[in-house]
Design brief:
- This is Peptidase family M1.
- GO terms for molecular function: metalloaminopeptidase activity; peptide binding; zinc ion binding.
- The protein is an alpha+beta fold.
- Among the domains are: 185 residues, Immunoglobulin-like (Sandwich); 134 residues, Orthogonal Bundle (Neutral Protease, domain 2); 82 residues, Immunoglobulin-like, CATH 2.60.40; 67 residues, no CATH class.
- Helix content is 27%, strand content 25%.
- The protein contains 21 helices and 31 strands.
- A 7-stranded mixed β-sheet has the order 5-8-3-2-14-18-16. It has a 6-stranded mixed β-sheet with strand order 17-20-21-22-24-23, sandwiched between helices. The chain has a 4-stranded mixed β-sheet with strand order 1-25-26-29.
- The N terminus and C terminus are likely disordered.
């Protein structure tokens, strides 16, 4: 409610000072620093968020030989791993990840899966539950040291411990080999991050292969071995190293993989090699394998094999794809002074979407991400279309988005396909280069990547329909039952509402930092500094939080605490507005205002009725009862009033006299934080003349009272309305309390004529079915003959 009062000039100044009530906090201070939650800085990881002088990380180099069995849909292989201990610790055993064991018959993922039976279930759900006896786990053959000595090992579900015959000391390396095999899953039935798709029309397979080899686990300064079991949501934590991988596949297959092809003369025709060379400097994609060539290959069944050898330096993982159905196109770009070859592999079922967009999207993604983080330094970037909807690996990603069989597609399909390619190619930066621990913190790769994905989408097309970016897009999630939410700082396997919590909320939180709290200049510099500091290293959440503050000089502990460590939501409200004006002490002005207010004041109901009900009063009939006060006007300006005013002016300086007559408007706006999540107050003031002004008040306004404060605004023009967060920058979950005067939320409803219709009973349904199935009677056609 608006309360208008005349106020002395000195009192207006006091309104800007916090009252005793505004200096109290109940419960935890939301502006307390995070020292008690973050790990203590040390020589490995500094208080600034940068790697310390003694930072170290392990290294694992691989030489892998793998064979694809296209008849049995199976993989077999062997590998040599050289593991270098760059830690200050002595290691007596090593941990190796066997992530394919998530598809083992005795998988703990399957054993711990929870759910409810629905009245209607898709066939795919039963396929996944039954799996038709499918066993996709690793079958380990030999584990032995270089030179042939067998190594003892123990398999614990998705982890394998290898016991070393002699301790591995700092700066020492050990080389050992592992052989294995496993069955490849039908991705359309058993949805994983890797698998095959069968095309019944041409009876061909398309393989997207990852987690296909036993991989070294991370050993780090902040947690030792990262050997948390792979349960499905928490992805991977892997050390960097160099890879050389030889992939033997049917001779008519095209194989794409992480890294650079080492033997093009052995696997490509001269025409294909020439086209690949041409693509290096092309402005648009060049076909290496054309649709016509791919369709011809679909009809063949080569009995022989080819071995494709790829090499990749300083990567954390390796993946590949193989099919005789692949169309292959490529184009080169310059990034940071280096050549990057952007390539796409896709079956004809992906066209026209894939031939038109995929490689262009890759190039666009690499350019934009490099600008916001660090220059992309790998030689290739690849997008493969197949059964995996979206999954990322160094230099290579698997992506969905297939048009209808007639080549048409919806807008959702088009933009969904572009977005997933941006997202998965963007993962080259998070976590393939800035190598966070996905097994522990999904948000550190998915959330950060989804944020830069949003920036990249907006540079693809004006008003691109991004799903995650603007603050208002996370509001529906923030409104959900708190029992269905978890803080962002929750282990990957325990997160509820995975997409909203691990992707959307951290991404949108970063956009709120960039647009509302820090500003683009400070945020972009700090975010880029984080990427620079931790490129090709293993950052933790504390390293990110500390770097963002260290490089910007903005205290963000309150934001990390609220947005990342709690499930509180934003709900700022205007509780009330009081209006004050400076008392000019000019009797003509002030008494005139009082008379105006008196005249405008409503008469009571009794006064209104008495006006007609009481024809004459006693004083009307006996005028002798009148005295001085019956004609006295207290609001009339007297010479004495003017004299006192002139005497006052003589005691004031010219500046003080001007202040008295300024006619300033002073508004005391009462604010409440109903949602608990601290945010800046973005106040839009609309003046009586229609002009608008926006003031952004930093979140520190809540530092002495996290629940309610009053803010004083001084304006030259009268304010007609106040609105909090007019552009929905803070994910406020209730806009109905953001305005003064309160504004009705417009909506519409539809009228229709009510008709009560009962569902058909079983007898009616059976009768209708019989009529539908009954054959129509036919009448013999006369030939005109006689018996």
């Amino acid at each position: 409610m608006l309360k208008t009062t005349l106020l002395a000039a000195g009192l207006a100044v006091l309104l800007a000072l916090p009252s005793a009530a505004q200096n109290t906090n109940s419960g935890t201070d939301k502006f307390a620093q995070l020292e008690t939650l973050l790990p203590t800085p040390n020589s490995y990881r500094t208080a600034s968020g940068a790697p310390g002088n003694d930072y170290w990380q392990q290294r694992a180099d691989y030489n892998i030989r793998v064979r694809l069995d296209d008849e049995k849909q199976a993989i077999s292989g062997d590998e040599d791993i050289t593991y270098t201990n760059l830690s200050p610790d002595v290691l007596t055993y090593l941990w190796v990840q066997l992530d394919q064991n998530i598809l083992d018959k005795n998988s703990i993922t399957t054993a711990t899966q929870v759910g409810e039976i629905q009245a209607r279930m898709p066939f795919q759900a039963m396929d996944y539950l039954q799996r038709d006896g499918f066993d996709g786990g690793f079958k380990i053959g030999e584990v032995k040291l270089k030179g042939g000595k067998a190594l003892p090992y123990v398999i614990n579900h998705t982890m394998m411990r290898i016991d070393l015959p002699t301790p591995l000391r700092p700066k020492q390396a050990v080389t050992f080999s592992i052989s294995w095999r496993y069955n490849i899953n039908d991705q359309l039935k058993i949805n994983q991050r890797s698998g095959y798709e069968f095309f019944p029309d041409d009876k061909n397979y398309l393989y997207e292969i990852a987690q296909f080899y036993p991989r070294m686990a991370v050993y780090s300064d902040n947690q030792g071995w990262q050997h948390k079991q792979f349960l499905g949501n928490g992805e991977f934590a892997l050390p960097f190293g160099d890879y050389r991988v030889s992939i033997t596949a049917p001779a008519d297959h095209v194989v794409g993989a992480t890294g650079v092809l080492q033997n093009p003369n052995d696997v490509l025709s001269s025409a294909q090699r020439q086209r690949l060379q041409q693509a290096q400097g092309a402005k648009s994609p060049v076909l290496i394998v054309s649709p016509q060539e791919a369709e011809k290959a679909e009809q063949t069944r080569a009995k022989g094999t080819k071995t494709w050898t790829y090499a990749a330096k300083n990567v954390r993982d390796f993946a590949w794809a193989s099919s005789r159905k692949f169309i292959w196109d490529a184009m080169g770009i310059k990034q940071g002074g280096k050549d990057v070859l952007c390539m796409s592999y896709y079956p004809k079922e992906g066209n026209p979407l894939w031939g038109k967009y995929s490689t262009e999207v890759i190039a666009h993604t690499i350019k934009v991400y490099s600008r916001y983080t660090i220059p992309y330094e790998y030689p290739v970037a690849i997008s493969v279309h197949g059964p995996v909807g979206g999954m990322e690996y160094p230099m290579l990603s698997f992506n969905g988005g297939r048009p209808e069989k007639d080549g048409t597609y919806s807008a959702d399909r088009k933009y969904g396909m572009i977005s997933v390619i941006i997202h998965e190619v963007g993962h080259n930066f998070f976590p393939m280069i800035v190598n966070s621990d996905e097994r522990q913190w999904t948000w550190m790769d998915e959330g950060l990547n989804s944020f830069v994905q949003y920036l990249t989408e907006q540079e693809w097309e004006r008003d691109y329909p991004s799903r995650r970016g603007d603050a208002a897009q996370i509001v529906p999630y923030m409104r959900t039952d708190k029992s269905l939410q978890t803080p962002i700082m929750t282990n990957s396997e325990s997160v509820l509402q995975f997409g909203n919590n691990a992707y959307g909320k951290p991404a949108i939180g970063l956009n709120i930092l960039r647009e509302t709290i820090m500003g683009r200049e400070l945020f972009d510099y700090a975010f880029k500094e984080y990427a620079r500091r931790w490129a090709y290293k293993h950052p933790t959440p504390a390293d990110f939080f500390r770097t963002m503050e260290d490089a910007s000089a903005v205290d963000l502990d309150w934001f990390w605490r609220g947005w990342f460590y709690t499930t509180e939501h934003t709900d700022l409200a205007i509780a009330g507005v009081k209006q004050y004006n400076v008392n000019s002490q000019n009797p003509t002005v002030e008494k005139g205002l009082q008379r105006e207010q008196k005249d405008k004041a409503p008469r009571t109901i009794s006064q209104q009725r008495n006006q007609t009900a009481i024809a004459r009063t006693l004083v009307d009939d006996k005028p002798q009862l009148n005295d001085f006060y019956n004609s006295y006007d207290p609001l009339a300006t007297t010479p004495a009033d003017q004299q006192r005013y002139q005497q006052l002016l003589k005691t004031l300086s010219p500046e003080q006299q001007q202040r008295l007559g300024s006619g300033l408007n002073v508004y005391e706006v009462s604010l409440k934080n109903l949602g608990g999540l601290t945010m800046p107050v973005i106040m839009e003031m609309t003046y009586a003349d229609g002009q608008k002004e926006i003031q952004t008040i930093p979140a520190e306004i809540w530092r002495k009272n996290n629940a309610e404060v009053s803010k004083v605004f001084v304006t030259e023009k009268p304010v007609a309305s106040f609105v909090i967060d007019p552009y929905q920058q803070t994910a406020d979950t209730d806009l109905s309390n953001n305005a003064w005067p309160q504004q009705a939320a417009p909506s519409r409803f539809e009228l229709y004529e009510f008709q009560q219709r009962a569902a058909p009973n079983p007898m009616q349904q059976q009768s209708a079915l019989q009529q539908k199935e009954q054959k129509p009677l036919t009448t013999p056609v006369s030939t005109g003959g006689s018996n």
